[in-house]
Amino acid sequence: MAGSWAADPQGRGRLPGRVLDALPALLTWLIVLSPLWAGYFLPVPFAAVILLFDVYWLYLSTSTALRAWRSHRRLLADTREDWQKLYRADRIFRRTYLDWDAVRHVVVIPSYKEDDAILIRTLESLAAQDVCGQIHVVLAMEAREPCAAEKAERIAALFRGCFDGISITLHPAGLRGEVAGKSSNEAWAAHWVRDELVGRRGWDLYTTTITSCDADTVFHPAYFACITYKFATDANRYRHFWQSAILLNNNIWDSPAPLRVAGALAGVHIMSNLMRRNRMMFPQSTYTLSLKMADDVGYWDPDVIPEDWHMYLKCFYAFGGEVTVEPVFLPTGNDAVCSRSYVASLKMAYVQHKRHAWGSSDVPYAILQGIGHPEIPFTKKARRFVALSGNHLLWGTHWFLLSLGWFMPAVIGRLFGHDHVPVWLPIGARLLLWACFVPYISMFFLDRRLRPARPGWWKLRHSVADIAWWALLPVTSLLFSTFPALEAQTRLALGKRLEYRVTDKKA
Questions:
Q1: Residue 173 — φ and ψ, nearest 5°?
Q2: Angle at 486 between CA 484 and CA 492, to 5 degrees
Q3: What's the burial of 378, exposed, middle or buried (CB within 10 Å: 0-12/13-18/19+)?
Q4: How far apart are CA 363 and CA 392, in angstroms?
């Protein structure tokens, strides 16, 4: 099987693998319950740890906001860039490695029960590309969807002649060792690309990129011109992922107000990561890599659910730790969760975040791969592992440390007649948490800059509710981020299989 024990679709594995699967949940629950056990038995050391964590959170919030604003300035500049003109200048000074017209792009659009309007909107954004003649679109459909082939043919007919080509693949259902979802569908489509476009039509594996995207992706018109420039002028192009700024703004005004906050913060976080000097980031949702690198590692693993970080890790370990994620300072639109009703949207948001949090299955995968690749310098492996595991650890624990860590030990102590919590803990914690509001407010105003124009039906009451839900972040964070992460990690530890469910969207 291409994946790890943790990715076993039946939730089974040998004992070492089962122990590794349980590791994220064990650490998470140990920390979640720490205000109770550590606050009682180790009140002073625990108080010091909480204050240090609050200091770290203030640093993390501030640095995230500052990098996001810098990224925003780059976005404004790069959206006005003439990428072909830049290429011609580099060509004069012999800083190019491929001819502009030789670069081709394959875009794989996995789809399962997506509305026609959403797929059409994605294809329209591809047809509007500056280099649309160098793009081949693959509508990757699922055989288990009724009339999937007919729907794909109907949509593809609207765009014949807009691209180098548009093809349809039909991923069979129930293949052994697969988990239904984006990764297995992409794997099927990518192998078709290798067999058909490269094998039969003679495409050059070395001059082709492949882009993984969601069915609701709206690309900036210059995205593939930018990718063409970067791919043709980078000597290390076969060891890169390219990641743009993912913004959940396509249908932002239709999404429930509590979910708009989470979507805004996700976009700010991705923009911030684009500015990391050490390139310590992972691809998210929609990204591009060379077809050569994808082919060398055997494409996407069909037995995983969150495919983006996993694909990066697979390439990172396969190529001796030399793979990096390079920023593309252009906005890429995705849909926020928006179902048939307000309550259904909230439920679907929970399901989506649980699916994303299932990425904790990559923690045992990274441990096994790290052990299996001693040729990669330890520090390089360790930095990626800390970034990966730290993300999932914070995901499920930070709410409890920030919200309960500073006062729950005192409550427990009074209940059991053991009131030894230092008086400086609640004072220091509250001061640090209040200071965190400064970068948080900064993120609020950055989100205002990034959103599209408000629709005509938007009224003052909508703005009031929008701001109110920003103030209620502790509530929405607990319900739609922390709880899904805890469930996903606990299910992984117990060997309970997670079924892939497509998120409801509205174009």
A1: -85, 150
A2: 100
A3: exposed
A4: 9
Q: With 90 as the cut, is the pLDDT of residue 409 above it?
A: no
* Contact criterion met (CB below 8 Å) for 138 and 174: no
Q: Give the residue from 229, 240, 225, 214 showing the smallest Cα distance to 327.
A: 240
Signed CA dihedral, 248, 182, 202, 242: sign only: positive
pTM: 0.91
Q: What confidence score (pLDDT) does residue 405 get?
A: 87
Q: What is the DSSP letter of 500?
A: P
Alpha helices in 282-361 (DSSP H): 291-296, 307-318, 342-357
pLDDT at 15 (0 to 100): 57
The tokens of 316 are what? 């990172």
**Nearest-angstrom CA–CA distance, 371 and 296:** 21
Residue type at 35 in one-letter notation = P
CA distance 357 to 20: 16
One-letter amino acid of 479: L
Domains and CATH numbers, the chain: 96-336 (3.90.550.10)
Beta strands, E only, 414-493? none
Type of residue found at 284: Q
